[in-house]
Amino acid sequence: MADSLTLSDIQNARQRIAACIRRTPLTASAALSERLKTNVYVKLEMFQRTGSFKVRGAFSKALSITPEERGQGLVAVSGGNHAQAVAYVARTLGLKSAILMPESTPRNYVDATRGYGAEVKFASDVRQAFDDVAAYERVGWAYIHPFDDMAVMAGQGTIGLEILEDVPQATDIIVSIGGGGLIGGIATAVKSLKPSVRVWGVETDGADCMAQSLAAGEPVTLSAITSIARTLGAPAPSQRTFAMAKSLLEGVTVVSDREAMEALRYLLERLKVLTEPAASCTLAAAERLKSEFSSQRHVVLVLCGGNLPLEDLTRCL
Fold this sequence. Notes:
The protein has helices at residues 7-17, 30-36, 54-64, 67-70, 81-92, 107-115, 126-138, 150-166, 181-193, 209-216, 239-248, 257-271, 277-288, 310-316; strands at residues 26-28, 39-44, 73-77, 97-102, 119-123, 141-143, 172-176, 198-204, 251-255, 298-303. With 317 residues, it is α/β, with parallel strands linked by helices. Strands 1-2-10-7-8-9 form a 6-stranded mixed β-sheet, with helices on both faces. The chain has a 4-stranded parallel β-sheet with strand order 5-4-3-6, with helices on both faces.
């Protein structure tokens, strides 16, 4: 795979992972269309295996390497959805998995990851977890990066293919940003097939490494992740995901935790779907961008996951 992601990479990833993932529903929403005064659709990726989009990229990477390259098993760094995805992929392929997590990881993510058979090792913070990966690689474990990997991004980009097949009239797509792999993959797929589509990024205050990086003109590393949207908690984009965001996105909207949680509650009450703040923030961003959307636009919100700690939900309610 070349150093720049292509439509062909994403199409090949789709064939590679087709038997392993769900094609998630994409549905029009009358409630959201009335609220935003445009035509709104939701891509329900929280119904994906393990509750988020992450298995697409994890399967794409694991199936793109040889059995010999898988070596001892799969190792990953994550305090959220990527952890569960890699553990699930390893179990499906009959491999061992080791997940390096920050000590602050919510219990629901730890329990779910262990439930898929992974060995969980805690680090003081996410930077230490990334540093610890090298020791596993030296003894033959295959590392699956949460976002800075072409095969991973190709897997995430399959969502873009599905969106254009289900809503060929789409004019705008709003996608969350953690490290930038999801939005980079989706934007590459969509812009390759329909360049007129506008792709909008969204982050939350305290997990806004991409917005800060774009403002600075170079990748910025956050000193800490303080947002409730923990699964947006990449400390920095990579050079590659930063470059993709700079060239492919209309912009990145940063919303508050309160806005994300208010949107989460609205989605639960009106659409009857439980998202996590990293997904509901797309609705909060759509509210901020409302003036960009006329009655002739067709706006897709990617609801990327639904693995919400119960304590966060009760705090919201």
